[in-house]
Amino acid sequence: MPRNLKEEVIFTAIMAGLMVLGMTAYNVSLSEGFSSGLALSILKGYPLGLLVAIILDLIVVGPIAKRVAFKYIINDYIRNHGALIGITISVLMILGMVTFMSLFGIAVEGELSGNHILAIYGHTWLFNILMALPLQLLIVGPIARGVLGKVQGSSADVEAED
User: Fold this and answer.
1) How far is CA 90 from CA 13, 107, 138, in A?
2) Whole-number Cα distances in Å, 60 to 3, 10, 13, 116, 162
3) Is the pLDDT of residue 151 over 70?
4) How much is the pLDDT for 77?
5) Can you spell out the DSSP letters for the chain?
6) What is the pLDDT confidence band of residue 158, given thresholds at 50, 70 and 90?
7) Confidence (pTM)
8) C-alpha angle 75/144/96, rounded to 5°?
9) Cα–Cα distance measured from residue 10 to residue 139, given in angstroms and rounded to the nearest whole number
10) Is 27 exposed, middle or buried (0-12, 13-18, 19+ CB in 10 A)?
11) Mean pLDDT, the chain, as a whole number?
């Protein structure tokens, strides 16, 4: 887990950057199929999605997920198994981010009007959660935690030299 602002920024940048890239690729592929313009469509949607995801992560979803985790979910057993704290917070983050980012994606695609908005949102949310959970827990999370561990290790090495 990040211990200071620098580590939080690095961790969030990696986590949000890779998750938005993966989820953008997934959603564009679902929407447009695999075509010659797929890469361009992914890159076109990436910057705005990344900006929204970082804001949501730092200001809305992150603080709420951590507060809920430590107040209602994380007990003594989980505290004694450090990895479970990270997994618990990750799952709550995924639930929150998918909830907001699915709405964002529908809005960007102009799908917020019409009689079937709840069906469209429910479908989008379900398909996004099915992709986001394994993407975050099996790929992006371990990468981000690995990089954070190296940053923390190098910080400890520098502090030890001083």
Assistant:
1) 15, 25, 11
2) 19, 18, 16, 27, 37
3) yes
4) 77
5) ---SHHHHHHHHHHHHHHHHHHHHHHHHHHHH-S-TTHHHHHHHHHHHHHHHHHHIIIIIIHHHHHHHIIIII--HHHHTSHHHHHHHHHHHHHHHHHHHHHHHHHHHTT-SSSTTHHHHHHHHHHHHHHHHHHIIIIIIHHHHHHHHHHHHHHHHHHHHH-
6) low
7) 0.86
8) 55
9) 17
10) buried
11) 90
Residue 144 has pLDDT above 90, yes or no: yes
Q: Which amino acid is at 44?
A: K
Reading the block at residue 21, the tokens are 């890239």
Tell me the one-letter amino acid at 69. A
Q: Tokens at residue 58, please?
A: 């730092």
Residue 107 amino acid letter: A
pLDDT 10s digits, 62-118:
999 999 998 888 888 777 877 888 889 999 999 999 999 999 999 998 888 778 899
């900006």: which residue's tokens?
51
